[in-house]
Amino acid sequence: MEKYKQHMNWFIGGGILLILAIIVSLMNYFQSEPNMPTTSQIPKQTEPESLISTDKPNGKNEENNKRKTEIMVDVQGSVNRPGVYELKEGDRVLHAIQMAGGFEERAEIRSVNQALKISDEMIVYVAEKGEKYELQQASGKPLDENGTVVNINSADETVLQTLNGVGPAKAQNIISYREENGPFTTLEQLLEVRGIGEKTIEQWRDQISFE
Questions:
Q1: pLDDT, tens digit, for every residue of 98-141?
Q2: Which residues are within 8 A (CB) of 28 and not within 5 positions of it... i.e. 6 or more apart?
Q3: Strand partners, 150
Q4: What confidence score (pLDDT) does residue 96 get?
Q5: Which contacts of 99-106 are long-range, i.e. CB under 8 A and separated by 24 or more positions?
Q6: How far, CA to CA in Å, does 24 sit from each of 11, 19, 27, 33, 34?
Q7: Measuring CA to CA, how many Å separate 34 from each of 37, 68, 142?
Q8: Helix (H) or strand (E) holding 134
Q9: Are 112 and 63 in contact (CB under 8 A)?
Q10: Average pLDDT, integer, range 51-68
């Protein structure tokens, strides 16, 4: 009987200790719960905003842009320093002549339109006083003193050189062909002249006449 009472005391004591342990655990749980972040307190993850590129053009693009603004002009005739000069888009014939050292004393200043905007591969020819000359109008077509386009069958070497891509050698080839075969009658016939190709005659389509 005594042993039974002793066992019961241990059982009751153990039960009490178990209950106390459960109570302590529950208290610790409820005390820590308010500190846990709620769903509304958890910061939302935002998608990174796409950045607008502010990079400057790379070197290749800058080089291409530079090439577009560079213009090469051949200045010939009565100027102090004839030659090929590099100018910029929007420059005028006046600027090309200034690059070439200005007019010589013998220059016929009226032989050029100084206000005309230059174009790439353009030839600016300044005639001498007393020399027959052509004057280029704003459209870029070369005009002679009578206001007509270049007559390919009667123009001399100087006048022929005012056409795009024509130098002394090519002008002489045109004259030699005329002397040997007679006057030109079609644009395509110019292809028979040494040094003249299809691209060249396309540039001349609105610049020359046959009569």
A1: 999 999 999 988 888 887 888 888 888 898 888 876 666 544 44
A2: none
A3: 208
A4: 93
A5: 99/75, 100/75, 103/78, 103/79, 104/78, 104/79, 104/80, 106/78
A6: 20, 9, 5, 14, 17
A7: 8, 71, 93
A8: strand 134-136
A9: no
A10: 52
Residues contacting residue 130 through CB under 8 Å, at least 6 positions apart = 108
Whether the Cβ atoms of residue 159 and residue 197 lie closer than 8 Å to each other:
no
Closest among 145, 139, 86, 84 to 117, alpha carbons compared: 139
Residue located via tokens 């070369």: 142
Q: Is 161 exposed, middle or buried (0-12, 13-18, 19+ CB in 10 A)?
A: buried
127 near 78, Cβ under 8 Å?
yes
Token readout for 169 is 């050698």
Q: Are the C-beta atoms of residues 78 and 103 closer than 8 Å to each other?
A: yes
The 122-126 sheet, strands edge to edge: 83-88, 70-77, 122-126
**Whole-number Å distance between alpha carbons of 150 and 187:** 13
Measure Cα distances from 119 to 106, 138, 147, 199 in Å.
26, 11, 21, 17
Instruction: Summarize pLDDT for 132-160 with one digit per residue, the tens.
Output: 766 665 444 454 544 447 889 888 888 88
Terminal C-alpha separation, the chain: 150
Identify the weakest region by mean pLDDT among 13-22, 180-189, 190-199: 13-22
